[in-house]
């Protein structure tokens, strides 16, 4: 158990799960929550998991950043659609020599964090996690959970990343240090771009997509465009990775991507993080990712209609 | 009034309308119908049109091709999804020196006709028509109606095309002879590919698409791919045509494309005629039409699900 203190911004499916595990392991963890503050303060945090259910009765939870103690490591566990809030949320809760670890989907999603603490104090990671918030202060962890993270500035694995990784490992969180997080993000996009996007565009589960020849071809050709986009930036992803991702998906239980879940619930989707930013990055690197762009525009169309329908 | 006899295969929104006009003008017209045969025989054919309603009480209509007299000009007015029927329907109803005029959407949709009567006896045309069948033997013509047609083999405007065009004109059908029907078809696809496809993929009317920046961009970039696909085959379409099509669509009343109508009614969509054949033609000519292909696969996915749901 280290003496590093952790702050969790967003106590949902991801922040509630990882923060809960860190707190259970004995770390000092402070949670910033929104709608669930009172419930968690009164009833604690409940995590159901196939690795073992647990309940934290005494949780340090706050409704505003001003009330919360400044922490050594602040984990951003919001959806990227909430990142505009970070300019206000982060300054009070990061120690002067602390750092921010952004655990979000997509590409180029660290700007709001680097704007507050600087690129050299920003860490970035991808989570391979199936988890849902099923009620106030109530998380249901379904499967997986590994975090791959590293310095935003890359350049190998820093001591800081190693230390935080130790805390995670002590909390039974599987970690892989990433010497180049941008490569990690491109690799994750190889799955996220086709399956988040097509699940909404086609209104289909992973199994629906993989059971149809044309669904599988769409997924495959999109994956190839992600690989080509990464290559245009100088990031090499082996072609066999595409086949492996398809094969893994074929074997998965029918699964609704996070974007499909958001869509079904009428929530804003992470369209810019997962689609807009990669399409723009590819274009800037000279690659015309036309299939990705089609899907990007499709999702923006659907997202705008969702937002209108909610009004 | 000529002594050419006309056969109409498919007495729906298109065949009922044009065949009705030809019959009204005094031409000898025989209709091949499916579900509506008895109704039309008993009650005639009713056409509502802003150009003037009319009712034909004595209609020569048949339920099987064997009963029907052979005609000089047989007009194919089925959906292309029914073209597999032509091998049986056409032989009894085309005179030995007669010809077949295929009035259907899409590209490379003449094969079933040429297989029966030969390429040199096949004519081909595109209709710019808004018309619906609203009940048995009951057609509602909404707007437009021009036919652009020519020899399947191209090579300018034949005498035959001129003669049939005269009959159409006498029947108040606006006609434009096409010296190269494949160019005409590519030009029509500039509109049909984006607006038939996106209306189903996005579940949107033409107005919904044009009111959204991303919808309009999808339509525009798809149009550019159609123009590039045609160019790969040696067919030149001016770039200004794309802007004109967008502008015309912007001014249209909100309209459901024929594919969206089919989709809403759970009917098979003309996916191969309007998407599959153009994508394959572009690929054969060396152009990789990736956006068109994405939309093609999307529609095949949706079409297969529709068919499954009907079972």
Automatic annotation (TrEMBL), chains A, B:
This is 2-dehydropantoate 2-reductase. Belongs to the ketopantoate reductase family. The lineage of its organism: Bacteria, Pseudomonadati, Planctomycetota, Planctomycetia, Planctomycetales. One of its GO terms (cellular component) is cytoplasm. It catalyses: (R)-pantoate + NADP(+) = 2-dehydropantoate + NADPH + H(+). InterPro entries: 6-PGluconate_DH-like_C_sf, 6PGD_dom2, ApbA, KPA_reductase, KPR-Related, KPR_N, NAD(P)-bd_dom_sf. Catalyzes the NADPH-dependent reduction of ketopantoate into pantoic acid. It comes from Stratiformator vulcanicus. One of its GO terms (molecular function) is 2-dehydropantoate 2-reductase activity.
